[in-house]
Automatic annotation (TrEMBL):
UniProt family annotation: Belongs to the TVP38/TMEM64 family.
Alphabetical list of InterPro entries matching this protein: TMEM64, VTT_dom
Native source organism of the sequence: Streptococcus oriscaviae
Topology with respect to the bilayer: Multi-pass membrane protein
Keywords: Cell membrane, Membrane, Transmembrane, Transmembrane helix
Highest taxon, organism lineage: Bacteria
The protein, known as: TVP38/TMEM64 family membrane protein
Lineage, highest ranks first: Bacteria, Bacillati, Bacillota, Bacilli, Lactobacillales
Coiled coil: none
Amino acid sequence: MILQILTWLGIIAMCVLGYYLYKQGYLTDMPKLRLLVGKAGVWAPLLFMLLQLIQIILPVLPGGVTTLAGVVIFGPFWGFVWNYLSICVGSILAFHIAKIYGRPVLRLLFSPKTIAAYEKKTSSDTQFAKYFAIAIFFPFAPDDFLCYLAGTTSMTYKQFIWIILLGKPASILIYSLGLTTLFSKFFGF
């Protein structure tokens, strides 16, 4: 319940921020947006990565919002790099948190409906590892939840990290390119 309220507040905040940025011309003028971000200097990528990490650990914002922001603000190459690094680190942290705290963390962060929908996938460790690897490869899977769920299984850190490191690049590229294409059609970038 608390996470749902935070999620809605996060979505509302993003809409208000998006509206403000749009009205100020930052979403219709790429050089102006990059100049705004550039004011943070070398801290800009670190601040972005911190936002991305928080978004994974406390999934109150849709991940696509920050993924798109990375590509739009930093360009396709550096946007991908900052997204990849922060998403991998955030995913590993989510897995680690679940390893430490177990199922109670799932109940704290996710709805019973979400947990029930995926819980049957954890009945077989080998089947879950295969399912997890496939899901991580695709861009529209509930990655944050799946990373936490994986932490409640017998999956090892080594196995998890390899799946994340190898599976994430493709999904981030697909997601980034798809969102960037849609965004460019609406805002002309």
